[in-house]
Fold this sequence. Notes:
Helices cover 95% and strands 0% of the residues. It has one domain (2-84). It has 2 helices and no strands. It has helices spanning 2-25, 28-84. The longest helix has 57 residues, at 28-84. It has 85 residues and is mainly alpha-helical.
Amino acid sequence: MKNSGLFIGLGVGLLAGAALGLFIASSEEQKAEWTDDIKNKVDEAKKSVGKVVKQGLDELDKTVESVKKTIRDTISKEEAEIESA
């Protein structure tokens, strides 16, 4: 298990190094094009992450409301049982 993490890290480092080397060796025009592409991808990723976070928060709100309702119902039932006893 420890070795697999090491190999994954080495692989990611190798890819990052190769990409950086390619970027440095490229022309200024190509660098500008790649930079624009990267910025567009980052913007798309931010929008996607924002959407997922919003969906998660909406689901959390629904769950909280459901738990509150269950608690209120349980308390009401217990109070009714106490009053009838």
